[in-house]
Specification:
With 186 residues, this protein is mainly alpha-helical. It contains five helices and two strands, in the order E-E-H-H-H-H-H.
């Protein structure tokens, strides 16, 4: 690390161990306190530091702005690069060498993954449609409609109000399952 004559005054002190010690002083004008706190010089050289006392490093840090002098586009570009630690990135599908990778479960095949995602969404959609049919509701029903219909059906099919308790209990279980599915998906 390079030190200029202005920011470090070398004082050799003899302590109990008879070794020499370098003391850094605060770089603030007219400050003679020890500079034990470091602060980066600028955005380009973050590994080069200026040394300050506690009072002046706080003042320096309040005024220091990493993005000073950059336009909005440059700031956004810097933030975007910061997501990947300023390392180059590329889409996996373009540079994937399929000859070197054993894909026993066909995970990397794009058609299988999209089919699997379609199956998942289709099964969820079918579940929702089935739940709406159990509650006798149209597809464009709101959450309030679902809650209203649920209350009506629970009162109608509650085992305490019906003679055939076993059948009404099974219907109530189906209504509760359908209601739970709809609440989770709204």
């Amino acid at each position: 690390m390079k030190y200029s004559e202005n920011n470090i005054k070398n004082i050799y002190k003899r302590n109990n161990s008879e070794s020499l010690k370098i003391v850094k002083y605060c770089e603030w004008n007219e400050c003679n306190n020890k500079g034990i706190h470091r602060a980066p010089k600028n955005r380009e050289y973050l590994r080069e530091f200026r040394w300050f006392c506690l009072k002046h490093v706080r003042e320096y840090n309040k005024k220091w702005n990493y993005f000073s002098g950059l336009s909005q586009i440059e700031i956004e570009k810097e933030l975007k690069a910061d997501f990947t630690w300023h390392l180059p990135t590329w889409p996996i599908s373009e540079n994937l060498n399929k000859n070197n990778i054993k894909d026993e479960f066909d995970i990397l095949k794009s058609t299988n993954s999209t089919k699997r995602n379609d199956k998942i969404t289709n099964s969820k959609d079918n579940e929702i449609i089935h739940a709406l049919k159990k509650l006798n509701l149209p597809l464009d029903s709101s959450l309030q409609d679902v809650k209203r219909r649920y209350k009506i059906l629970v009162k109608k099919h509650h085992p305490d109000t019906n003679i055939n308790k076993k059948k009404s209990n099974n219907i109530l279980i189906e209504i509760n399952e359908a209601y739970k599915i709809l609440l989770n998906n709204y």
